[in-house]
């Protein structure tokens, strides 16, 4: 055992070994042992479950403490762990004793499944199948998407802050949408789910944030700043099929329009509006020629918003024959938007 401990020195500098030598002599701390037991008990459960997600967050918190030098919860360095196949046999015993290979694989699934709540079951299944297929058949495509993501986030952080109406911000939004479309292989529902996840970044659990910060190669304030800009840019700019309504055009474009009209009332800095925006763009494409779909900046067109008695943002309003027939407040789901428009679109087509 002592020879095995000595062999682990090669993974550390002198200061690092001084910190971790005790860990190799005494083994995992009680906190780690408790997590090992919990992880093994959860191995056959859903990695998206609250218990699994809570385990992932606590595992990450303990790892951060260990890597920051907390001697009470030391663990292997990332360099040592990555080379575990070449450890001395005496040092491999905990891998078997605590089932750490299977536990590590489960925690990877926990991190991946932290986004599942933003998908319905069918879109999540398609997303996992897509990831598996692309990684096995075209790993270079995975690398290209990742590099485009990293480049975009770096450009966002380093570029001057622009108004959301500027061409520069529009270009960022277009690049962001192109990356998400590539990640979803053009599956509109998967793209919407990915956008919903990113729009809710401020509420992410620690495990998901850690995973996405790593993907973006940014952390802390830089990561928050980049995501906030991209989310705002996406919300502010319409797709080619989505109209921008205003106080000047509202009567002509909405109240006198023979076609059914969906109006999404939003404002800058509204997180729910950012989540809703791409779903509005999606139904604009789907119902083109059957329903006129557009967005109204409620704060810039306050008189219209007050006349329509909009009391919450976002709010979607459906007009048929110039009459308001349905109102929904909050981040309406894509499925609900489609359901709202299906009957009016069918009637208009007849």
Summarize the structure in words:
This protein is of the alpha/beta class and 350 residues long. The protein has 3 domains: 112 residues, no CATH class; 121 residues, no CATH class; 107 residues, Glutaredoxin (3-Layer(aba) Sandwich), CATH 3.40.30.10. Helices cover 62% and strands 8% of the residues. It is built from 17 helices and 5 strands. It is elongated. The model has no long low-confidence stretch (mean pLDDT 90).
**Average pLDDT taken over every residue:** 90
Radius of gyration: 25 Å
The major pleated sheet works out as: 5 strands, mixed
Structural class: alpha/beta
Which terms summarize this structure?
elongated; 350 residues; single chain; Glutaredoxin; 62% helix; 3 domains
Secondary structure layout:
Layout: H1 2-7, H2 14-26, H3 30-42, H4 50-67, H5 78-82, H6 89-97, H7 100-113, H8 121-137, H9 139-158, H10 167-183, H11 188-199, H12 206-216, H13 220-236, E1 243-245, H14 250-255, E2 261-266, H15 271-286, E3 292-297, H16 302-307, E4 315-320, E5 323-329, H17 334-349
Parallel strand pairs: 1-3, 2-3
Antiparallel strand pairs: 2-4, 4-5
Helix pairs in contact: 3-4, 8-9, 9-10, 9-13, 10-11, 10-13, 11-15, 13-15, 15-17
Summarize the structure.
This protein is α/β, with parallel strands linked by helices and 350 residues long. 62% of the residues lie in helices and 8% in strands.
């Amino acid at each position: 055992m002592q020879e095995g401990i000595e062999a682990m020195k090669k993974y550390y500098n002198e200061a690092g070994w001084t910190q971790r030598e005790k860990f190799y002599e005494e083994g995992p701390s009680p906190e780690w042992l408790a997590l090992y037991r919990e992880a093994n008990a959860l191995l056959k459960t859903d990695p998206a479950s609250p218990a699994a997600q809570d385990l992932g967050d606590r595992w990450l918190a303990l790892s951060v403490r260990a890597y920051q030098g907390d001697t009470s919860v030391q663990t292997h360095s990332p360099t040592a762990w990555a080379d575990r196949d070449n450890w001395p046999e005496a040092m491999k015993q905990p891998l078997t004793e605590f089932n750490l290979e299977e536990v590590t694989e489960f925690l990877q699934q926990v991190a991946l499944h932290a986004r599942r709540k933003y998908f319905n079951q069918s879109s999540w299944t398609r997303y996992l199948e897509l990831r598996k297929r692309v990684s096995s058949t075209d790993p270079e495509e995975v690398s290209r998407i990742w590099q485009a993501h990293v480049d975009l986030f770096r450009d966002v952080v380093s570029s001057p802050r622009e108004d959301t109406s500027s061409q520069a911000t529009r270009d960022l939004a277009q690049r962001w949408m192109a990356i998400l479309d590539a990640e979803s292989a053009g599956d509109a529902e998967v793209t919407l789910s990915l956008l919903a996840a990113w729009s809710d970044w401020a509420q992410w659990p620690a495990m998901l944030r850690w995973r996405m910060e790593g993907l973006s190669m940014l952390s802390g304030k830089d990561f928050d700043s980049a995501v906030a800009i991209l989310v705002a840019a996406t919300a502010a700019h319409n797709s080619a099929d989505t109209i921008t309504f205003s106080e000047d055009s509202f009567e002509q474009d909405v109240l006198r329009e023979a076609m059914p009209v969906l109006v999404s009332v939003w404002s800058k800095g509204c997180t729910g509006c950012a989540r809703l925006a791409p779903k509005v763009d999606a139904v604009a494409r789907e119902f083109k020629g059957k329903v006129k779909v557009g967005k109204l900046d409620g704060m810039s067109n306050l008189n219209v918003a007050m006349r329509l008695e909009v009391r919450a943002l976002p709010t979607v309003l459906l007009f048929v024959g110039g009459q308001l027939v349905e109102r929904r407040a909050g981040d309406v789901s894509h499925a609900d938007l489609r359901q709202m428009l299906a009957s009016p679109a069918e009637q208009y087509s007849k």
